[in-house]
Amino acid sequence: MRPSSCDTFVALPPSTEGQRIIFGKNSDRPCDEVQEVVYFPATDYAAGEKVECTYIEIEQVAHTYAVVLSRPAWLWGAEMGANEHQVCIGNEAVWGRQSADGEEALLGMDLVRLGLERADTAEKAVTVITQLLEKYSQGGSCMEDECSFTYHNSFLISDRKEAWLLETSGKYWAAERVEGGYRNISNQYGITTKIDKEHPEMRAYAQSKGWWDGKTEFNFATVYSFMTTARIEASGTRYCEGKKLLEKSNGHITAEAMMDILRDKDSGINMEGMFMTTGSMVSVIPTDPDLPGVHYFTATPDPERSVFKPFIFVKNLHPLKETSSPSYGPDDPVKKKPRFQSKPDRKHELFVKHELVAAIIESHKDRGKKITEGMRQLEKEMIKEMEEHLLHGVESPDFLVNLFSSSIQRELSVYSQK
Q1: Region entry Disordered: which residue ranges (predicted)?
Q2: Which of 9, 156, 277, 357 pairs as cysteine with 184 (C-beta 3.0–4.6 A)?
Q3: What pLDDT is attached to residue 111?
Q4: Which helix (H) or strand (E) holds 368?
């Protein structure tokens, strides 16, 4: 099994409709892995407190922002998510000339969550992630398994006005600002000669390794990528296909257009097999700060057989129980050393019911078609309902404290269609 991992997209005006930023990501993970969608409120902490990430404990900050995350249920961080300030982040596995086989440290997924909890703009998230990278490093198995599947990380980060692409190799990194149009990333380095921020020793390190002569124009992807591209060939194909799909809707990119891209199987973006799309996210962020962002999550595998359900940040939000996996606390096999000696059942309520429906869709053509059509119709209705909030703001926040959970109930009612 050769892991292929994910695709992340962002579209900014003028490539979008209605002065909005559209962010999207498919999380491609082992096919037996459960992805949950969870909400954590903003929290204040006392001086000296620590936070336990997936493998290591680090210093906590005085205040964390409210976040909604889509994450593999066994770990602390997240594959993708958003915060109350409408910052969105997704990460990708990347491999290059520098070995990724380091000791346990922060996972790229931990850095996604930490960036969301600690930064109220995309640019600040770049700073948060790179400072943590410098202090704690990145490393550790990225699968719930002893296989030591490790990688470096790239991140696509957006807010209400711009996006940033951040790519790392060990502690070294480069970042590029994206102020308009669209951008997508797969599992390969994509920053070339336009570098807007960088690790102060990044070029000198490359030169000391003989990867760059110090004279020719510095191209981050060329310098830090593998000499051979065999490992990233599939991601290169997905990257090109993703770019074509964005170009096809250029000027008219909407939430629906992004969902269609994430559902595309011919391109490999909607992945099937041992590694498959286990969770998907699409966010709609108006550039107007008085309007809410709407964040859609599937919380289930295969977006083609899933419903994108809306989430809006309001006060007094309820926990997302239907998409929260069981917690095993200190008895979790991930926490005990040696790690990964067993795998507990991490299926959440929606996952269990979706699994049954996916089997029906697969084996009962007529009923499956009816259910799938019902799911698409429900999704269209919810997108239309969210348009009111995107255009006019949130007039009654109390009605949205259960938005995501009530959307799940509507999804479950579609499942029971005969």
Answers
A1: 323-345
A2: 9
A3: 98
A4: helix 365-392
31: its two tokens: 């096919």
Q: In what order do the strands lie in the sheet with 35-40?
A: 35-40, 67-72, 80-83, 88-94, 152-158, 163-169, 172-178, 197-198
The structural domains of the chain, ordered by start, are 7-414 (3.60.60.10)
Q: What is the residue type of 266?
A: D
Type and span of the H or E element at 256: helix 255-262
CA 78/CA 70 separation, integer angstroms = 6
Q: Which residues contact 40 (CB under 8 A, 6 or more apart)?
A: 64, 66, 67, 69, 117
Marked catalytic residue, from 6, 53, 88, 142: 6
pTM across the whole model: 0.96
Alpha carbons 86 and 124: distance in angstroms, whole number:
13
What are the Cα distances from residue 325, in Å, to 152, 264, 345? 27, 28, 9
Measure the CA–CA gap between 91 and 115, rounded to whole angstroms.
Answer: 11
Residue 275 to residue 28: CA distance in whole angstroms = 6
Instruction: Take residue 84 and report the two structure tokens written for it.
Output: 């109350």
- Which position has the token pair 């336990």? 52
Q: Is the pLDDT of residue 287 over 90?
A: yes
Among the listed residues 383, 395, 351, 369, the one whose alpha carbon sits nearest the alpha carbon of residue 255: 383
Q: Tell me the DSSP string of 35-103.
A: EEEEEE--EE--TT-EEE-SS-EEEPPSEE--EEEEEETTSSS-SEEEETT--EEEEEEE--SS-----
Burial of 338 (0-12, 13-18, 19+ CB in 10 A): exposed
